[in-house]
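Translate sequence into structure tokens.
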Amino acid sequence: PAHVPRLPVMEEGILAPVARLDRWLDAVLVVLLVTCSARYLLRHDLDGTALLVLAGAAVLGAAYLTRHLVADRAAWSSVWIAVVVVLWVTLTLVAPSFAWTAVPVAFAVLQVLPFAYAVTVVVVMTAVVSVAWSRITDDLDPTVFVGPVGIALVTVLSYRALEREARTRQALIDELTEAQADLAVAQRRSGALAERTRLSREIHDSVGQGLSSITLLLG
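Result follows.
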């Protein structure tokens, strides 16, 4: 049978293969949580509220890192998103420094939820970031509201465009793989037919020679 070269399997996901992107998101979240916690402690006393904030950061990190346990379960993935987003919103409203952790959380939302729901959640998260940052500024700064909205909009649209492009490439690869498989089947059939034709000719020649020999002997 003809050998069909295997095409590399393209993983679902945007910007990087899923496993690699997930590892980067995990690492970024952990670094941001540690950095934001340190910043919070530099500006606040280690009192009861600070301990709650640190505990909230630890819980958020632990909850986020459990994503791999529910990745293959659609219902649990939605529950996981709800828990993580609620934890993030609570932590950000109490300690606005943690608004930076919205980036890996938002990307996780875009990976798990359907696009329309993901956009809604990201918009809500953007509003939370704006409210949180407005609490730590003395004057009304329009960039606090416009900036996050613009970033969120560009991120969501870019993610969507890349997702569509990735799916299109995957569809083309699937079609090419299927065409190569069909070609391999056709080649096997052609080879089998050629082999049958050869055997038929050999049998025909053998029978013809046998009959000729018998005719000569009888004559």
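Note: The two ends are 48 Å apart (CA to CA).
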